Write a sequence for this structure.
């Protein structure tokens, strides 16, 4: 058996023996040897091949491989028929493939580097004893057997067994999810290691006191590290955009390769030369593959992540930008996310009577008793300590009391115990020596013997009186307040000196109840209303009382004001359900999980995912990390979250605010809509690029577009307009639609028909019409062959290219909105759009009239009237597309009216 697994059972001397150490710590040489043996104290699994694997993934996607294959075909064609400049084209295609891959890799690498800057949770330096002397080390250099020196404010860097303590208190929230302080000791204990009160766990914060502890587990062997490793080992499912992109790439690749091979075989069968068929096949493939689409995707996501950052939503994975827009369910915490995490004592209720008959002197007495069981200290920013204790101190001061004097009158403090769910203290209150307790009502009720009725009178605590007090507690909880009961008893000087907490917790008198409010964030109700109008369900997961959780859910808008208890489930009920039963409960309308722990989040996530929901989960603790990783979108808290939670998440809320999640969802939806727009825009030009090759192989006509001209569109003039569409602002109705379903396709049949068979055919018809008009005007007749350097051919292919470039302007404006003209949004609102239009205009002119461009592209000039005819393509494509939108809108309105 591993000796450290029972280390909490051992005396201090036995602990040192088990770990081969001593009270003075390890010798430097022994520590160095152990560091070589066990490795650094780090929870991160370092993958030396991660960067290379990321680069290889970008180099081996379908589009990139297809471009490399086309490049290889160019070199084969150059070998078969030298002097046709096919090698230049081959290098161009290879360069495009490489740049595509490098661009995506760099964006992904930059996002990961930004995330690495956040990984500063474990302290960089710690104090230990080495050879009897205190030394400062980096946390990564700790080894088992080191004697760790802990003090207030320290973050525990490794799992360690305490051997000496002085009033030591820690916050185990990063590990357990419980934010209450825990008192630790150095005596042996029985039970499970993770429940031991003599163990300081890695990642937890020292709130008070100091101590010495012997390190017995470091890195991934700590409880912190085990959870971190679990979250790292979980593989997140591909994001919706990744699935959509993969589907689109497969479809377009199949079309490109299928058409290319079919017409290659047709060309071979018809007796054309092999190199001509190779060039033709490559042209078909290049025309079908939108080479600039994937880098434009990456740019759109990168720009979306920057806009999200300005809304306090930090994205650690680019695909999460769009995935957040696909969310159908948000599972959220309460404290700090829906609320301000600023506790305030807002209600004081006497043990007997109502708060309306509670005079100030009695209110002050109740607060003094509560403060006797509290612990606060002064800091540079004011009072410090447990937020509840600080809230009590502030209310006491507000009622005319003196917290500092009350603190001096306390002689002994029993810190809050998570299992007992209460804290206590002994002190002098109003001239009387008392033992005071504050905690959960259900815990204190069995200890009560009386109720304080004021004026020195005490009522016997019969069942009716206790039920009346419990009704007051329930009323406070139903109002959304956290309820703390306060009880006391008089003690003698001997009892105050020698008795322990358990001996004093009997025959208590209930002093009253405190109603603690953590106000809702002002912007949360509007954010919840936006979620409902957007078809997004919100599930509240909290450790609070069910009545408190219901009140917060009603106040924020998670459930309707008339919602009943059927919308609430407790952690105990959740634990008893099978996964299928939980799915049925969620479908039946359960939206609140109360008295639940972070470990139960995973069960809720998996049940929602089994219902085919896209799930976002919030969390901040180490034990939230597996649920964050299992969710489609993990959302960690930036200010209160642990490093492991942030590492497991794809989204980090810099302000811990639920409203920021909703703002991120709107941005994510906008990014997807914009991706759909520029995908539609880019695919339109595929039509006039493909049709010339089909005519060329089927009919005795010249090729209207060369491969280099196609690339000038796909990788030249279409890039800036695509980026402009990727920067379009949110549409007002973006949060008025339900989330798209799992079955939704980015490359839908409707988009393909619209791009290829409507707008694509329009561009092809007008550009080819002018192509043949120029040929016919120059004396060409059907079946006549033209050399590629013939001036007539160059002029004809030039006007075909210029026409496509100009018609893409009409296409660009029309893509700004699926139902409206696109002009109504104002061209000047998007300056990148204006730049894209300017580039297309200038490029169309340079294609025909600027010699350097003509030389590279193989084009020639045309008469000005012909060039002006190409400009008519802009209103033609824009007008016919707007007519289609108008007819579609009328038809939808008519169908909607019929349905009503």
């Amino acid at each position: 058996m591993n000796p450290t697994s029972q280390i909490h059972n051992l005396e201090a001397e036995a602990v040192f023996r088990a770990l081969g150490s001593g009270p003075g710590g390890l010798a430097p040489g022994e520590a160095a040897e152990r560091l070589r043996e066990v490795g650094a104290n780090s929870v991160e699994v370092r993958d030396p091949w991660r960067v290379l694997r990321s680069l290889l993934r970008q180099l081996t996607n379908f589009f990139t491989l297809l471009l490399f294959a086309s490049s290889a075909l160019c070199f084969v064609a150059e070998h078969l028929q030298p002097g046709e400049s096919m090698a230049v084209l081959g290098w161009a295609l290879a360069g495009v493939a490489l740049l595509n891959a490098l661009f995506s890799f760099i964006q992904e690498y930059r996002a990961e580097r930004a995330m690495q800057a956040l990984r500063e949770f474990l302290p960089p330096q710690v104090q230990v004893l080495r050879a009897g002397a205190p030394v400062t080390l980096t946390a990564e250099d700790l080894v088992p057997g080191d004697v760790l020196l802990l003090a207030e404010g320290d973050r525990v860097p490794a799992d360690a067994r305490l051997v000496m303590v002085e009033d030591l208190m820690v916050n185990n929230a990063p590990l357990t999810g419980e934010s209450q302080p825990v008192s630790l000791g150095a005596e042996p204990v029985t039970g499970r290691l993770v429940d031991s009160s003599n163990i300081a766990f890695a990642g937890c914060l020292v709130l008070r006191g100091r101590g010495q502890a012997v390190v017995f587990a470091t890195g991934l062997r700590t409880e912190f590290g085990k959870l971190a490793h679990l979250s790292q080992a979980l593989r997140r499912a591909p994001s919706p955009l990744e699935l959509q992109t993969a589907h689109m790439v497969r479809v377009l690749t199949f079309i490109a390769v299928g058409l290319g091979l079919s017409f290659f075989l047709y060309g071979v069968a018809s007796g054309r030369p092999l190199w001509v068929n190779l060039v033709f096949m490559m042209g078909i493939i290049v025309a079908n593959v939108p080479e600039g689409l994937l880098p434009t995707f990456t740019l759109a996501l990168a720009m979306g992540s920057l806009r999200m950052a300005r809304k306090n939503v930090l994205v650690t994975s680019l695909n999460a930008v769009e995935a957040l827009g696909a969310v159908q369910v948000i599972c959220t915490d309460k404290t700090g996310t829906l609320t301000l995490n600023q506790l305030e004592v807002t209600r004081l209720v006497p043990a007997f009577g109502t708060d309306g008959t509670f005079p100030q002197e009695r209110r002050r007495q109740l607060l003094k008793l509560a403060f006797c069981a509290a612990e606060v200290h002064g800091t540079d920013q004011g009072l410090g300590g447990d937020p509840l204790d600080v809230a009590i101190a502030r209310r006491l001061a507000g009622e005319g009391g003196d917290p500092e004097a009350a603190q001096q009158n306390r002689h002994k403090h029993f810190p809050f115990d998570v299992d007992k769910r209460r804290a206590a203290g002994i002190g002098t209150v109003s001239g009387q020596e008392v033992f005071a307790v504050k905690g959960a009502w259900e815990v204190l009720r069995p200890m009560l013997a009386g109720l304080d009725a004021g004026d020195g009178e005490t009522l016997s605590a019969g069942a009716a009186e206790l039920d009346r007090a419990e009704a007051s507690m329930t009323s406070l909880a139903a109002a959304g307040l956290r309820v703390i009961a306060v009880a006391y008893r008089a003690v003698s000087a001997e009892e105050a000196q020698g008795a322990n907490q358990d001996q004093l917790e009997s025959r208590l008198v209930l002093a009253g109840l405190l109603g603690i409010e953590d106000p809702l964030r002002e912007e949360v109700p509007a954010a919840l209303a936006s979620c409902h109008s957007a078809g997004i369900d919100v599930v509240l997961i909290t450790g609070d009382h069910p009545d408190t959780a219901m009140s917060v859910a009603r106040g924020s808008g998670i459930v309707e004001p008339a919602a009943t208890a059927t919308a609430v489930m407790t952690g105990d009920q959740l634990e008893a359900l099978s996964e299928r039963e939980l799915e049925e409960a969620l479908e039946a309308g359960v939206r609140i999980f109360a008295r639940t722990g972070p470990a139960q989040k995973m069960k809720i996530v998996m049940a929602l995912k089994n219902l085919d929901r896209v799930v976002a989960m919030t969390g901040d603790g180490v034990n939230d990390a597996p649920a964050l990783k299992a969710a489609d979108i993990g959302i960690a808290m930036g200010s209160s979250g642990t490093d492991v939670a942030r590492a497991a998440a794809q989204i980090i809320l810099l302000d811990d605010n639920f409203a920021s999640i909703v703002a991120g969802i709107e941005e994510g939806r906008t990014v997807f809509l914009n991706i759909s727009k520029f995908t539609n825009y880019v695919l339109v030009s595929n039509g006039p690029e493909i049709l010339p090759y089909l005519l060329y192989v089927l009919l005795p006509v010249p090729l209207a577009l060369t491969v280099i001209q196609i690339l000038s569109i796909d990788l030249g003039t279409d890039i800036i307009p695509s980026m402009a569409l990727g920067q379009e602002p949110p549409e007002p109705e973006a949060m008025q639609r339900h989330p798209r379903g799992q079955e939704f396709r980015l490359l839908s049949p409707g988009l393909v028909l619209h791009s290829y068979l409507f707008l694509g055919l329009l561009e092809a018809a007008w550009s080819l019409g002018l192509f043949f008009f120029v040929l016919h005007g120059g004396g060409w007749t059907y079946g006549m062959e033209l050399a590629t350097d013939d001036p007539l051919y160059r002029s004809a292919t030039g006007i075909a290219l210029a026409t496509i470039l100009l018609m893409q302007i009409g296409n660009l404006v029309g893509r700004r909105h699926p139902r409206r003209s696109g002009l109504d949004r104002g061209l000047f609102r998007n300056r990148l759009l204006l730049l894209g239009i300017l580039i297309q205009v200038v490029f169309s002119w340079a294609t025909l009239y600027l010699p350097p461009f003509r030389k590279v592209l193989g084009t020639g000039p045309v008469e000005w009237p012909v060039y002006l005819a190409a400009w008519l393509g802009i209103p033609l494509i824009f007008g016919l597309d707007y007519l289609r939108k108008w007819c579609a809108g009328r038809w939808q309105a008519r169908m909607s009216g019929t349905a009503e």
Q: What stands out?
A: Residues 117-123 have pLDDT under 50 and may be disordered. The chain has 35 helices and 25 strands. Residues 584 and 607 are 9 Å apart (CA to CA).
